[in-house]
Amino acid sequence: MAKSRRRSLRISLTPCSLDVSSDEEDLNELSFYDGPPWHPPNVICDQLNESGIRSNGNPVQPRIVENVVKLLEEECTVPFIARYRKEQTGNMEAAVIREIKSSLEELKVVQEKTKSHLGKLGKEKKLTKELRESFCNSHSMIELEQLFAPFKAGSKTTLAERARRTGLEPAAEKLLGETAGLFNIQSFIHPDTEGCRTAAEVEKGVQHIIAEVVSKDKTTVDYLRSCVKDMKDQIFLSVSKAGQARKKTKKEQQVDYEKFQTYFDGKFSINTIKPHQVLAINRGEEFKALTVKVTLPDRLTKQFINWCKAKWCSHTQPNSYSSKIMCMAVDDAYNRLMSPMILREIRSTLNKTAEKASIEVFTQNLHRLLLTPPVKGRVILGVDPGFKNGCKLAMISATGEILTTSVSLMHTGNKYYERNKMIDLIQTFKCETIGIGNGTACRETEEFFSEVIRSGSLQPLHVQYCIVNEDGASIYSVSPEAEKEMPNLDPNIRSAVSIARRLQDPLAELVKIDPKHIGVGMYQHDVPERLLKAALGDVVEESVSFVGVDLNICSEVLLKWVSGISACLAKKIISHRQRFGAFINRQMLLDVKGLGPKTFKQCAGFVRINPTGGAEDTNLDEVIVISTSEDEVDVKPLKRKRAKTTAGPSKRRKKSDEQEPLDSTWIHPEAYEETRQLLKMAFASGRDIGSESIRGKLDNLIKSRGNASLAGSIGVGEPTLDLIINGLKQPTNYDIRVEFDKPLFKQNIMSIDQIIPGMQLTGRVTNAVHFGVFVDIGVKDKGLCHRSHMLHHILKGKVLGPGDKVEVVVISKRLTDSGKWNFSLRLVGVS
């Protein structure tokens, strides 16, 4: 799914002329379309500000949006724009740039649809200067479809079309005309024609035609929408329990009313209803557990009908026969056509807003999950828990290689034998880190390892375990990608390998799995597949690009998510590496067939050539360990010698193929010359990158010259100067993920019986939704910290997401009918 999902975003920014020079104008010429008269950046800017979207806490500026649009038209990627074009974007966040990209794609669709409509109307000789101007000034699909509605061929089964086929359209036109007072219904009665045999049939048919005309009139529809907008707080979504008659007959398809009882007899204002409530109500309606109805206030109906009668019936004599038919047609237009239409629009708007909110929640949570700090340099035992078929085990090396696999019947077999078998396995491979999947039998597996650790049988090893989210592991284990990567392994064992690697390097492993299968969203399965796939793809690309990949050790799966690199190109890069050996510098990427200067510009800053070229040389930080008992456990990095590697057949190197120290940083090659000037001014060299020495030299230089003056001296903007300085200061193999909270490791387990209301616990956020966050407090079931129990003075502006360490107090605990515990929590601290 790499760059094939990126469509061309080219939209003409030049206003087209709406003037027609000749009185005998050619309507086919009017249908020519060369772009909108409105300015796309201005439209996008208004849309973003109206939606409440902010950049760095401030309203979005038109000038900035225009710069972003131009960059997108040049086919720049979102990560590239966000990191390397800060001067043009005003340091705009990647999320806002994605919003601009999405809006630009929608405007592209509007432009194409406008061209289609104008072409069709031109061929049918129905296009006028005024109509063309209206089409060209429309910048939304709703406006376009509303303008095109009167010219759209209706279904032959509609009441209006049936009346037209009987020849009643002239009668309707006469009533709509200025001479409606002279209307004589008798002249349209034809005893031999069905639908025109009596005055009542003629009256009904004319009424249907007029009702359709009224319902498709732009001014009338606009007024109805304005009434709805003005009275949003008086429009409600009424929800009730569906009748028993709607229950399905099959036992496995029985409606689970308990899940939706919160919404029984509910009345929600469309102005204040929350996105998660809309999605829950929609699901209940789909499962036939809920009946949903939108109710409009009587005041709105009365106001709108009075306005319509004043508009459509003013040319008729009061209390005349013509006035009577027109008024009946207006009532019919509202009750039969316009009211259902506006109710559908209200539901559609609510659904779109809720879907967008669901996608935002998912993307934010996925971004945090992908940026979970890796546990590098460790041998890890991955455990996929199970009862009947046992727990699947996979031991992986510090570099992710599979050392051994096994199955343990720790829950159903001989406890003594399984315990000793596990001790031997852990001691043989000197394993001090265990990752346990959070699926079936997780709790019992956790108890088993906790007892083994407490017994002291593993000493002198310092063993801890961590609960790992295994969502999507089973799906990945049977995928073609897993079969290709681990051809000789049972799918269940592959799941255990995936669990271990998720702990070792979450980003590298999670990119192999379809993001929608990672359980960190909110009703994500109810969101259109197309929208979800596009949004999640952008987030994965951004996460992988910002973390960066080592060009000489990364996998094809990881590389294809780097900004500017497609799946096909990733395969070519890996093939080139295998054939000619390791890349010495970034410039050598241009030797790869199919990778030109344009692609190099987009991807170069996100790939690195590390001096050592091995993940095992990564500087290790201490991994945070939090026990649910009173004892704190310190984890020491596992130091290993670097293994020697042999390269493949060497390609003859050119003199230019020399190592470039800056290739190990996130500094873009386009800024290398300016970076060298800065190093010279600081009396430093490439050998000093990441050292304490260069940090001091750069700090002194900035202190003496100032940021603005220094940026001007080397010819860059201040944002680029900051990026260069940070790149030079960061240690070799710096990983931005270290800035986030690390995985939660434990040695002891807490019992549910120990948890009582009022107890304060340390936990990790596992999922964030609009109504609060779910927290892992060290037991099988997660606790919910509702937004009402998350006070602002505690959050201090922080937005919680997966992986955040929090302090919570248990408010209550309750055992549900399904056997799960519900914990209600109150936030008291954030790390």
From TrEMBL:
Residues 638-654 have a biased composition (Basic residues). Gene3D superfamilies: Nucleic acid-binding proteins (2.40.50.140), RuvA domain 2-like (1.10.10.650), Tex N-terminal region-like (1.10.3500.10), Tex RuvX-like domain-like (1.10.150.310), YqgF/RNase H-like domain (3.30.420.140). CDD domains: S1_Tex (cd05685). One of its GO terms (biological process) is translation. It comes from Strongylocentrotus purpuratus (Purple sea urchin). One of its GO terms (molecular function) is mRNA binding. Residues 636-667 are annotated as: Disordered. InterPro entries: HHH_9, NA-bd_OB-fold, Ribos_protein_bS1-like, RNaseH-like_sf, RuvA_2-like, S1_domain, S1_Tex, Tex-like_central_region. Signal peptide: none annotated. Residues 758-826 form the S1 motif domain. This is S1 motif domain-containing protein. Pfam families: HHH_3 (PF12836), HHH_9 (PF17674), S1 (PF00575), Tex_central_region (PF22706), Tex_N (PF09371), Tex_YqgF (PF16921).
